[in-house]
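Good morning,

Attaching, inline, the backbone tokens for the sequence recovery test we're adding to the shared suite. The designed sequence is right after.
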């Protein structure tokens, strides 16, 4: 019963649409009607600027990290319980109860879960994400490359079939939410992002 409540709680916590709420409260706009229409930090960055995007990024990461951390600290939870809680938080973000089943791409929340479950793979995939974005200027490509590398690094550091399978599931979820991005990348219609120092040079 306890683990069921934790999974439900993680899903509800993950469902909080921080990108939508932050922009609605502070900018008086519905972020879903601007840019790519996504509620994640990347679209917030394009539409509302860096400070708000950083806030959304941190809040979205916390949606994945805190449920796993609190379950680990305050409940007698097995590794499988922690994984289920983490996947529930990601599902909440991707398919938010508060947005009628719609949500974000799940990268930030997945990263929060990965930090809580697999710190070293989280670090290595983060480095890959950053490097890929700097080289290509495509946030989506960074997310795709990082997600594909996740199961590999989990296997390298943990050598555990359940853990590696978890990495594969998270990777597949990210690929699924990026399916339209993949189509745009293949048709060369995906939008590049301007990095902070590039914006400063233009101003």
């Amino acid at each position: 019963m306890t683990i069921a409540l934790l999974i439900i709680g993680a899903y509800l916590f993950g469902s909080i649409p921080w990108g939508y709420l932050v922009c609605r409260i502070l900018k008086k706009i519905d972020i879903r009607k601007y840019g790519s229409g996504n509620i994640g930090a990347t679209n917030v960055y394009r539409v509302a600027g860096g400070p708000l995007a950083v806030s959304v990024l941190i809040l979205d990461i916390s949606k994945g990290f805190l449920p796993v951390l609190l379950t680990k600290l305050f409940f007698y939870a097995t590794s499988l319980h922690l994984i289920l809680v983490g996947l529930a938080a990601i599902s909440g973000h991707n398919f938010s109860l508060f947005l009628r089943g719609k949500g974000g791409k799940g990268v930030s929340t997945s990263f929060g879960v990965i930090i809580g479950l697999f710190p070293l793979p989280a670090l290595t995939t983060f480095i890959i994400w950053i490097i890929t974005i700097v080289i290509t200027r495509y946030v989506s490509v960074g997310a795709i490359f990082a997600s594909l590398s996740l199961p590999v690094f989990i296997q390298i550091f943990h050598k555990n079939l359940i853990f590696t399978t978890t990495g594969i599931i998270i990777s597949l979820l990210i690929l699924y939410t990026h399916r339209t991005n993949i189509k745009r990348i293949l048709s060369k219609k995906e939008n590049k992002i301007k990095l902070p120092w590039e914006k400063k040079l233009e101003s």
